[in-house]
Design goal:
By secondary structure, this protein is mainly α. It is built from four helices and no strands.
Length: 81
């Protein structure tokens, strides 16, 4: 079984510390999907930029519709949303 070292809040420095702080400010904690990318902070930063563009950028879909699509895709993929 593969193992990925997840960086703890206490271990985070530099770019990762900033991204963790932003996650905590946004959601009150660092969610698992964010922590999963912690070994590669530039990838985490790019992923968060894409998330913000998709969920908050200009779109013909409302914010509620975008969230609903995210929930349906997660459920279809067997993910806990």
């Amino acid at each position: 079984m593969a193992h990925i070292h997840l960086v703890s809040d206490a271990e985070a420095t530099g770019l990762l510390r900033r991204l963790f702080d932003e996650a905590i400010a946004r959601a009150g904690r660092v969610f698992g999907i964010v922590r999963l990318m912690s070994p590669n902070p530039p990838v985490l930063e790019a992923s968060m930029a894409m998330y913000r563009a998709v969920m908050f950028g200009p779109s013909p879909l409302s914010r509620a519709q975008r969230e609903m699509l995210a929930v349906v895709v997660s459920a279809t993929n067997g993910c806990f949303y």
